[in-house]
Amino acid sequence: MSTTRSALCLTHADDTTRRAVQLGKALEPGDTILLSGGVGAGKTHFARSMIQSLLKAPEDVPSPTFTLVQSYDTTKGPLWHADLYRLTSSMEVEELGLTEAFEDAICIVEWPDRLGRLQPDTALHIELAVGADDDSRGLTATWSAEAWAKKLKVWQS
Prior knowledge:
Rossmann fold; 5 helices
């Protein structure tokens, strides 16, 4: 399976929101997005924007830094948002039930390096980095599952 990469420059927070919403429209249960980047790179902003766009009714979308996982009932089905920053082993991931969610929910995982060998092969990897100024971000998407190429076409418009 070959790996494909796409890079975008997000000029401000609204651009990040727009890209997250566009991707959210293409998601379906079984899709996993792995969000990487340093503290303050925009992972939670990206995830929150996507989740809010998929909710049946508006609600607060807190960072799951302390709860580890937040789940939502969305227009696309169940969605799990995980922040694994505080975990120290992949065994803790299994205890959360996240591996089962990978099969039948949309999953957004911040700090996916904590997954270790449990990272789904079909996941979309998104790396966010602070850009030249405080508002801009670099976004690099990497995937090997062919389905992502079609889902990411919206970013080319």
